[in-house]
Amino acid sequence: MIRSGGCAPALVTGAAGGIGAAVATALAAEGRPVALLDRSAAGVGELAEKLAADGHETCALAADVTDPRAVWAAVATAEEVLGPLGVLVNGAGALVSGALLDLDLDEWSRAFAVNTDGVFHVSRAVGRRMRERREGSIVTITSNSAGVPRAGIGAYASAKAAATMFTRCLGLELAPAGVRCNIVCPGSTDTPMLRELLGDADLDAVVAGDPAAFKVGIPLGRVADPADVAEAVVFLASPKARHITMQALYVDGGATLRA
Question: What is the number of structural domains in the chain?
Fold first, then answer.
């Protein structure tokens, strides 16, 4: 197995695909054992097999982040199999779209159950262990919509904004224990979630922007790959970012103009 000295195990939620899978792969590539958590058992199982075939130490965990008991059990299993977790990446997310005043209440609740409550459940389960050990790094993946209003995805944006502030507040509480908490805010990234949102539109339309929806384009002229986001996560999780906490790093090609 490939395991570099000093690389503590990591837990990545939403690891079955998209950005979560890219993050898990990038963490494994630097020698970390990685626990893959997702409600899709097939998805994390397939990635675990691929990583194991490449010589990496990993385990697949099927759990829904909205279920606190399932989360506690999964975190315990991860530490039993891989050892004490040194990194948590909150990557699980659910896209909820629609005009706010017409949005079904169940959809509003789903946006917060996954994107906010899920971050709370997993961060609490892992964060308590990190606090006891007085070390660790938590990175929550939210969205650039957490900082800039977006028409048509208000529930998603609101939930991601809540997760962003939660992670900052958690970082303040855990700082005395030496545990860092940061946020990565991706913009449009070529994932199944983005493709679902776009429908019949193509990526060129995303790059160009939509003035009618008060959305600028992407100054760098391209939609991100999941690996672009993963690299930012790996940096914030690493000792190279040892003096960085409670920060939100936007990885969006300049799409928000950092407003």
Answer: 1
Contact 232, 249 (CB under 8 A): yes
Output the tens digit of pLDDT for each of the chain's 259 residues: 444 446 899 999 999 999 999 999 999 999 999 999 999 999 999 999 999 999 999 999 999 999 999 999 999 999 999 999 999 999 999 999 999 999 999 999 999 999 999 999 999 999 999 999 999 999 999 999 999 999 999 999 999 999 999 999 999 999 999 999 999 999 999 988 888 777 777 888 899 999 998 989 999 999 999 999 999 999 999 999 999 999 999 999 999 998 7
Active-site residues: which are they?
156
Give CA–CA dist 156/96, Å, rounded: 6
pTM: 0.95
Structural tokens at position 68: 């606190």
Q: Residue 101 sits in a domain of what CATH number?
A: 3.40.50.720
Structure tokens at 198: 């776009």
